[in-house]
Task: structure prediction
Amino acid sequence: MALSKDLMGAASSLSGDQPGNPDAQPWLPPYWAEAKAELMRRDRIMNKLIPQFGDLQLHGHPDPFTTLARSIVGQQVTAKAAELAWQKLRTLCPKMTPAQVIKAGAGELSGCGLSKRKTEYILDLADHFKAKRVHADQWSEMDDEAVIAELVRIRGITRWTAEMFLIFNLLRPNVLPLDDAGLIQGISQNYFSGEPVSRSDAREVAANWEPWRTVATWYLWRSLDPITG
Result:
């Protein structure tokens, strides 16, 4: 599967919640300090990389609908374009509830800079939540693959989108999003001196990160797109 740089941009946009970002919430992984210590002890690249970012860490978002909608907006566009469309959508739907999105309708959503297809995807997502065709209240108790299996039944939700949800909403510690171009590029630059990296190569490198593959992935994203502030 060809990996698009757009996926890297979308992941960077999601992973870059900073102070001052209206979506930033105090939704922090409780395992972060333990994971950092273990990764630095096991992996010489992580031992060099992690200290560069001090106390910075992943900020998640506690609302599942908002997290998924933002992921859909971020698919296959640059981080800048995704952020612009997202801010317009948040202005249109400040509460970002399924009912508010459905009430806005396709015409208003398209006016935020969303393509016809993405507009359809977000409306379908809102309909799934409003009609309770997803089990959002049970996701925290389900394992990763079970959550992914349910999410990919929704139009516009790919495995990559579902994995971003596991990272940014459920704060799962051991997600390895192999379809994410940022992860692959980060492994290439940090572990292979910029040489091409296969999925098999990525899995082999990541085997040393378990059970903290989410944390290692976040630091590789940061190595490509550092947070400031």
